Amino acid sequence: MNDRSELRALTSVRGIAAWFVVLFHIRLSIAGLSPFWLGVLAKGYLAVDFFFMLSGFVIWLTYANRLRDGGFSEIPRFLRRRIARIWPLHLFMLGCATLLAMLFAASGRADPVTFPFAELPLHLLLIQNWGFTHQLSWNHPAWSISAEMGAYLLFPLMVSGIDWRRIPSAVIFAAMLALFLLLYSVMAGAAATTLASDIPRFGLFRCVVEFSAGTMVAALWDRGHHRPLRPAILAAFVLIATLLSWQTLGLPEICAVPAMFAALLLLLSLTSGIAGNPLDSRALHYLGEISYATYLGHFLLFVAFKLVFVSDPTNVSLPLIAIYLACVLASSAILYHGVERPAQRLINQWHWPKRQPV
After folding, report:
1. 265-274 average pLDDT score
2. Which of 31, 108, 159, 222 has its CA 20 to 30 A from that of 351?
């Protein structure tokens, strides 16, 4: 992130969040899962909201000054690096989904709802969740990557429109609160009760709001990380207050969770690197490094796993679940080292051929 060292704890948390999404998607298949854990895992979709905020945080720290100093000439480089980061693995997984769809069709079990070939071009271009579709299809988790692409396209406009470094902290807090209230008013006004409500309709808006909030958290970290104690205490207070308000006072999820995650992100970033922080461990950090492969690969892997090993998809034994989770971990490492990173390097190193003088 520019001249700053990596905040390792945030990378680790990204990995933990990815595994919450994995468990969310398989929760209804786990045999004997208690109501308590079923309820906990049922909220795993909220990890995506943390992803959005974390993405805004990291991208603001990494690219805001570059775009501000480089102007319009820096935008193509920024977009190329973001496309290199998310599109190759998405394309690979979309190819895997196409093979699955063809397998279903060849066996007489064509599924035009899960694999609508007419919508495939939208998925190829990563615009499927920009209001063009009415339900999730193909590789379901990729909806959030489509929403992220929309945020990336808007980010240069954010940078040119406002410089958080010049804005007082109180004003940043007020702007963040206004964003969260806007998100709440739009979704609650349409009778949405959770952040996961009607993803094709609200997903892009949800992403842009939380991504923008992440840029504000980054600005707060930037001015507070040299003396982190006071802002960390404030962030911890907000985190606890919003969590209690959500769980005990009935504050709507749509209102409480974004504020809770903003406080959590600030707290984690301020405490990253502190001696003894378990989130700085090598193992958790590696889970974060391969988290995009975990996130994008697990869903289709479970579809294939059930086809081969599972007779009752609502009652999968714990040993089989353990085998599947091990497969997710192994495939994440393979996809990261074999697809994601090589393709990313290739795209970032590629240059337009120079025109020869006539």
Report:
1. 90
2. 159
CB of 150 closer than 8 Å to CB of 208: yes
Residue 114 has pLDDT above 70, yes or no: yes
> Which tens digit of pLDDT belongs to each residue from 46-56?
999 999 999 99
Residue 271 corresponds to which tokens in the numbers above? 């405490």
The burial of 310, by beta-carbon neighbours within 10 Å (0-12 exposed, 13-18 middle, 19 or more buried), is given as middle
User: Each residue of 165-203: pLDDT tens digit?
Assistant: 889 999 999 999 999 999 999 999 999 999 999 999 999
Cα–Cα distance, 209 to 202 (Å, whole number): 11
Type of residue numbered 308: V
HSE, CB side, 13 Å, CA atoms: give it for residue 31: 12
Alpha-carbon distance of 295 to 140, in angstroms, equals 10
Domain boundaries, the chain: 8-349
